Amino acid sequence: MKFGAALLVSSTFVAIVYGVLFSVTYPRVEINSGIAALCALAGLLTCLGTVGLWKLVMGSRSL
Amino acid sequence: METGYSQLPQLGKEVPGYGLYSYAILPSDSRRGALFLAEVFKEIPSIGDIPTRPAQVNIFYIPVRSERAGDFPGLVRTLAATPDKMGAEYTKSFYDYRMARALLDHVCNPPAASVRELCDGDLSRGPYIFTYASPASNMSSVPPPFLFVDLSDVHERAFNELLAAFKAQVKREDVSDQAKIRTLRLTILQVALKAADWINPVEKALADIVHSAAPGED
């Protein structure tokens, strides 16, 4: 699987997890498009951060 | 301690014998005020619907213009199913802003340490919730302890969560400590809702750019 597709799938999954966590933590707050977009962005940033961290750790190990 | 709402048609007209007395204070007719009252009508039952004995009830007073107090049951009958419309109508035609400003004056005359900064600043925003152990609308000065919740910087979509926290707060031994209101959970909600407000226009702008740049589009 290409990196872009893997990133898309994993960030979508993380975004859904964030959305579920939000709805459980704040049951009275309706999830609108703004919250959904925020979850999507947070999911993408989480995955990019994880990839960056992974490369950093692996890079330092191979030295 | 259960919470139930009621109308306050005049200063000093509270019903004695309740455990706590709370007041919904809106400094002026605004969209935020209407949204706040809509959430009050959604989250808090009418005092008449609470079977608990008064000593264990926090009565949540909403100032009402005395000449319109008699029309409130009619408003409930017609708009009870749509709290948003009810809140808007109440702020427009029923709410007594003079009484609300008088309540604020009582709290700030002279201000307790916990509200000094607020009293010295801009009191025109709100909404505010004020809770006291006895009827306070006719007191010229209100000595602490009391609970004063400033919702000026609270996102409108978080009013329901704040009201739920307020209802939990009045059940505590120390009503004035705000332990259920100043929480990390509610702070994160504020940040998330404000960030969501920022993202929405960006998202729409990006969609517009993609649409206008897409081949075959007009």
Write up what this structure looks like:
The complex is a heterodimer of chains A (about 60) and B (about 220). Chain A is mostly helical. Chain A has helices at about 5-25, 35-60. Chain A has one domain. Chain A is built from two helices and no strands. Chain A is elongated and about 50 Å long. The relative contact order of chain A is 0.15. Chain B has about 220 residues and is of the alpha/beta class. In chain B, α1 (about 30-45) crosses α6 (about 160-170) and α2 packs antiparallel against α3 (about 85-95). The mean pLDDT of chain B is about 90. At the A-B interface, α2 of A face α6 and α7 of B.
Kindly summarize this structure in a few lines.
The complex is a heterodimer of chains A (63) and B (218). Chain A has 63 residues and is mainly α.
End-to-end distance of chain B, in Å?
62 Å
C-alpha-based Rg of chain A, rounded: 15 Å
- Helix content bin of chain A: over 70%
Strand content of chain B: 5-15%
Number of helices of chain A: 2
Q: Rg of chain B to the nearest angstrom?
A: 20 Å
Biggest interface, and residues per chain?
A-B, 13 and 15 residues
Q: Strand-and-helix sequence of chain B, N→C? A: EEHEHHHHEEHH
Q: Percent of residues of chain A in beta strands?
A: under 5%
What count of domains describes the coordinates of chain B? 1
User: How would you state the average pLDDT of chain A, rounded?
Assistant: 89
Tally of domains of chain A:
1
Kindly state the mean pLDDT of chain B as a whole number?
91
Tell me the series of helices and strands of chain A, N- to C-terminal. Answer: HH
Major sheet of chain A: size, sense and barrel closure? Answer: none
